[in-house]
Design brief:
The protein is built from 10 helices and 21 strands. The chain has 469 residues and is of the alpha+beta class. The protein has 2 domains: 366 residues, no CATH class; 33 residues, no CATH class.
């Protein structure tokens, strides 16, 4: 089925504009604990595998269900680095049986904390089968509990600004600075995470997005119920062991800022942050205690969200719509010569753990040779009143998110990355031409050079479809 056919089928299920009854919003939310019960466990987020023996703070699948009397949708944000489509499809299938919510109306994303159990194999970390099953069931359970708590509600959108916590991490360097890649080349024009305060820094290779986009839910008697926020920051990474990173601190702090009571669920989805982190490369690293940076960032983002909501207008007559599609996109596969080179590197490293990017990417090259020529990439748009959430299953470059927001007919539009699956980094064609870590072919970056163009077009169609009355 083509992407347009899939979209048409979904929209046929929506009520015609003249036939729709006046919407009456209901909402329910639940924070489902997904902290592993057994240790040690593999942790995603690094070139080498790490084994966690404890959790510094709990991990959650924070779930929100909305119903307008005609359409029901679910939004869930999971404290995980990246989650494969197969796991999320399985969780949605279970949740659909529990609740009746169509799987196509569920948007589940990973926060991208780099201190969560591995459920997607990348570099030298491989999934723990028991935790994969555990997480699948817990996500479904969280959606079920949110659905069971549906009650009359009001919703409001708002957009705040927090420009001081986001910095582009890809930098052009002065002539003479060598940007070596793991494939034996030196043609990259940018460096990811360059030396701080280096005299060789020239300028960042892309923009940042300071927007804190917020969907806030209140009960019928105006008590804070839940909040779904979106901010384009990769992660912070200053907390030991397993941790929800600053995403978890935000969930706690934003409830305090809104003076919410027990049961309130704060959620922070990762925006388009593939090339953005919390390091100001123009300055030396500040001396901070473990966890201090996460709290500082979370408080700043929570303050921006709370301030944006001060003048928000809450409504109960909120219409919901959802649309999905899938694009068949090409895979960047290695040549026969590249595979032969990689096999030679691995043969020399046989019998020990891989060391350095050359050896690690050699294994990635061999694995990428077995990938299909194309992959089916899911896209989704969910309308909530006058705003929307757009979902991309990749680590998305910031300029793509900015373009989707600018062109969307629904304002505001939150663009959520790592949603409904994991298909690696998504640079623009221009960023591909600059090279750098995010473009290096591996299980973490394999879509075709022009895939972002197709994804922007696909999302534009979905957003127009859910915007049409």
């Amino acid at each position: 089925m083509s992407r347009f056919a899939a979209l048409t089928v979904l929209l046929l299920a929506a009520p015609a504009a003249g036939q729709a009854s006046k919407p009456a919003l209901r909402a329910g939310a639940f924070a489902q604990d997904v902290t592993p019960e057994k240790f040690p466990i593999s942790v995603n987020g690094g070139m080498a595998d790490r084994q966690a023996t404890s959790a510094h703070d709990p991990l959650h699948a924070r779930c929100l269900v909305l119903d307008d009397g005609t359409t029901t949708v679910a939004l869930a944000v999971v404290d995980s680095c990246m989650i494969p489509k197969e796991l999320l499809d399985a969780a949605k299938a279970i949740a659909e049986k529990k609740t009746g919510i169509p799987a196509a109306n569920m948007l589940i994303s990973a926060t991208h904390t780099h201190s969560a159990p591995t459920v997607a194999g990348v570099f030298q970390s491989e999934p723990d089968a028991a935790y994969v099953k555990f997480l699948t069931e817990k996500i479904a359970a969280g959606i079920g509990k949110a659905h069971a708590s549906l009650a009359p509600a009001k919703a409001a959108w708002a957009v705040g600004q927090e420009p001081n916590q986001v910095f582009n991490r890809r930098w052009a360097m002065k002539p003479g600075f060598v940007n070596a890649d793991p494939f034996g080349g030196t043609a990259d024009k940018v460096r990811m995470n360059p030396p701080r305060a280096s005299p060789d820094l020239v300028e960042p290779a892309g923009p940042t997005d300071p927007s804190v986009t917020v969907l806030s839910l209140r009960t019928a008697d105006d008590k804070p119920l839940a909040l779904y926020a979106n901010y384009s920051l990769h992660y912070v990474g200053d907390r030991p062991a397993l941790s929800a990173d600053y995403f978890g601190v935000f969930a706690e702090v934003v409830g305090q800022r809104l003076k919410a009571g027990p049961g309130f669920v704060g959620m922070l989805a990762n925006g388009t942050s593939a090339d953005v982190n919390n390091i100001n490369f123009k300055e030396p690293a500040p001396k901070l205690k473990p966890g201090e940076r996460s709290r500082l960032v979370a408080e700043a983002v929570a303050d921006a969200a709370a301030k944006a909501l001060e003048k928000a207008e809450y409504r109960s007559d909120v219409r919901l719509r959802a649309a999905t599609t899938s694009l068949d996109l090409p895979v960047r596969k290695p040549t026969a010569a590249e595979v032969t080179r990689a096999e030679g590197i691995l043969e020399k490293a046989k019998g020990r753990d891989l060391k350095g990017t050359e050896e690690i990417y050699a294994r990635e090259t061999v694995r990428m040779a077995k990938y299909p020529e194309t992959v089916s990439v899911p896209l989704q748009a969910i309308r909530v009143g006058g705003g929307a959430v757009a979902a991309i299953p990749c680590e998305v470059f910031t300029e793509i998110g900015l373009a989707v927001k600018k062109d969307s007919p629904l304002k505001p539009t939150a663009v959520t990355s790592l949603a409904n699956g994991y298909f690696g980094y998504l640079p623009t064609p221009a960023q591909h031409a600059l090279g750098g870590y995010e473009t290096w072919r591996a299980r973490s970056s394999f879509l075709g050079v022009k895939s972002s163009v197709e994804i922007e077009k696909g999302l534009a169609g979905l957003l127009k479809a859910v915007a049409d009355k």
